[in-house]
Amino acid sequence: MLKIFLSMGISLFMLFQLGKYIDSIFATSIPASEGDLEVSDMADSLSKNIIYVDNIKEKDKPLRPLPQDYTGSFDSRPSVSEYNWMGLPLDRDYLNAYEWRGDHINDLKALSFKQRKDMKARFKIWKKIHISEFISFMKESFKEEKKIYPKLNVSVCVAQSILESRFNTSKLSVESNNLFGHKYRGQAQGYVIAADDTPRDKFTKFKSQWWSIRAHSELLNRKYGSRIKGRATIRKWCKALCGGETLAQSKRFVARGGQTYATACYKNSEGGSECYGDKIKRIIRTYNL
Predict the structure, then answer these.
(1) Segment 161-218, tens digit of pLDDT
(2) Which of 37, 160, 203, 286 is most buried (most C-beta within 10 Å)?
């Protein structure tokens, strides 16, 4: 019995120390170095070179709020007062694609070159941590889902969440818990309006991320899983989602009345040859899913 209590005490102490360490990472700032950092270095590094926004004087406020698809035009240049010292928005939890790339920091002209460089370095470290945590969370979530829906492929599901939610930083995923771009089909929880195929598409608003994950598992299992025979590999899932392995094959599939997971399966908006399945495979390779 004494051994059990000693073991429990050691475990609690280790958890306490781990909690203090994690708190120290997120309670402090990010380093000026742009090189890769070990996790053990982050607590110290994040506390350096803090830029206190309140102490920065600006002549002009932004002319208008940043839209979701802000591309960096001069008349919409962001204001320092909109961001913290890591380059993250102060009044919202989502980032648009322009901000996710870190391009907005280059346009914070009220900061000196060094301040922008330091902020961008801190932003990169935050981004690296965020990506790692999101992937870990989604992997564990779909390992559990696979116990209920054995045909699911964890790598494909995680890659879809990355592609559809931008690592859970898009407005749709953050404010509506919609991690997979699910369109509204009369669900009781309601919908939100967002631009996709049309400017006013309706997307499902989920009560939590868990509901979004479970809805995705059910959708894949019910609608696309039946297209897969034998072992559910990455290649087979990508083909099942798109009705083919190329833009041309998917387009022919749709012309015959077939349904695909995304418009990108058969139509690349950027005019290239990469279809939805190719994007999924690329994400899996990039992040070693």
Answers:
(1) 999 999 999 998 999 999 998 877 666 666 677 655 555 677 888 999 999 999 999 9
(2) 160
By residue count, the chain amounts to: 289
Give CA separation, 24 vs 41, 43, 49, in Å: 11, 6, 16
pLDDT at 198: 57
- Give the three-class secondary structure for 214: helix
For residues 15 and 46, the answer to whether their CB atoms sit within 8 Å is no
The per-residue pLDDT for 20 is 42
Tokens of 72: 């960096």
Q: Which two tokens stand for residue 196?
A: 């996709």
Q: How many CB atoms lie within 10 A of CB 10?
A: 10
For residue 12, what is the enclosing H or E element?
helix 2-27
How many beta carbons lie within 10 A of that of residue 43, not counting itself? 17
What are the residue boundaries of the structural domains of the chain, listed by start? 26-148, 149-286
Three-class SS state of 183: strand
Task: Please say whether the beta carbons of 142 and 157 come within 8 A.
Answer: yes
Q: What is the CATH number of domain 149-286?
A: 1.10.530.10
DSSP label of 89: B
Per 3-state DSSP, the chain is made up of helix, strand and coil in percentages (nearest 5) of: 55, 5, 45
Instruction: Count how many Cα atoms sit within 13 Å of the Cα of residue 59 in the half-sphere of its side chain.
Output: 2
Q: What is the pLDDT of residues 86-139, one digit of tens each?
A: 999 999 999 999 999 999 999 998 889 999 999 999 999 999 999 999 999 999
Three-state secondary structure string covering 268-279: CCCCCCCCHHHH
